[in-house]
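Long-time lurker, first post. I've been practising inverse folding by hand and with some scripts of my own, and I keep getting stuck on stretches where the structure tokens seem ambiguous. Below is the full token string for one chain I'm working on. Before anyone asks, I'm not after the true native sequence, just a reasonable design that respects the backbone. If someone could post their per-position residues I'd love to compare against what I wrote down in my notebook.
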């Protein structure tokens, strides 16, 4: 019921009650997200400071309470990248396996149990992170002045 000093109480419809309940939950989830995001951004800052900002990239992941909001990879070392290339050469039809292996090797955040939980919840993440790590090891195409 909605009450005010000037108007009589108004009964909420079932839809209004459901929407209010959902809105309250979204406020709770946003607060949990914000708290975790602050932790994740601090960790990312430390990693970028240690490895160099150009040597780190990250992916935002859908937030689940109790889990991280992002996942970060570093640029692969020369031998790690060569292993990736060799795996692709040996089996050109299997690109996801080598990418997943590179992603696992280069994943720098999260670590430990948080890493395990994230990878269980997002099983394709290592493939995406492997591609991202591989991209870090190359130059970027300059597109200045090209419209």
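-- Answer (accepted) --
I ran through it position by position. Result:
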């Amino acid at each position: 019921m909605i009450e005010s000093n000037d108007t009589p109480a108004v009964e909420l419809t079932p839809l209004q009650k459901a929407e209010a309940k959902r809105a309250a939950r979204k406020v709770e989830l946003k607060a949990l997200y914000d708290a975790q995001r602050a932790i994740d951004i601090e960790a990312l800052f430390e990693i970028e400071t240690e490895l160099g900002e150009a040597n780190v990239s990250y992916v935002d992941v859908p937030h689940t309470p109790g889990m991280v909001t992002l996942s970060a990879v570093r640029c692969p070392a020369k031998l790690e990248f060569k292993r990736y290339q060799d795996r692709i050469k040996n089996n050109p039809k299997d690109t996801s396996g080598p990418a997943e292996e590179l992603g696992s090797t280069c994943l720098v955040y999260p670590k430990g149990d948080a890493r395990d939980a994230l990878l269980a919840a997002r099983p394709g993440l290592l493939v995406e992170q492997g591609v991202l790590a591989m991209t870090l090891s190359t130059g970027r195409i300059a597109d200045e002045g090209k419209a």
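A couple of notes from the structure itself: Residues 14-136 form a domain with the rbstp2171 fold (CATH 3.30.2220.10). The beta strands are 56-60, 70-74, 107-109. Happy to go over any region you disagree with.
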